[in-house]
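Structure in, sequence out. Go:
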């Protein structure tokens, strides 16, 4: 058990301290994602979906967690109300959409009107 624990943290250390500039995204395994959630570095997938649901309601079709340039992101496929499938790139630390990519027309921030 101790050996497995050390191997996991060594592999995680190698992922987070890569010296490559603009490296290709690295897809993380479930056990790695779970450790990041437990350490508070990223939101759980459920937590992320709760945030995403505020601006893009639908059914989760597929999800992947990546590390790229020392940042964590979820790539999500969501089937929205009219049956279209939208792809979203979400910051895994806060559940917010990547601001450099426009949201699909099916996904917009809900506005609240106060009177």
């Amino acid at each position: 058990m101790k050996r497995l624990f050390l191997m996991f943290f060594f592999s995680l250390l190698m992922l987070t301290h890569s010296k490559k500039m603009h490296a290709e995204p690295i897809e993380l395994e479930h056990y790695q994602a779970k450790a990041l959630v437990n350490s508070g570095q990223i939101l759980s997938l459920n937590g992320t979906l709760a945030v995403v649901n505020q601006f893009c309601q639908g059914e989760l079709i597929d999800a992947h967690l990546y590390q790229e340039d020392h940042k964590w992101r979820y790539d999500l496929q969501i089937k929205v109300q009219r049956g279209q499938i939208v792809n979203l790139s979400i910051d895994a630390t806060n559940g917010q959409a990547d601001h450099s990519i426009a949201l699909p027309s099916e996904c917009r921030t809900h506005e609240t009107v106060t009177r």
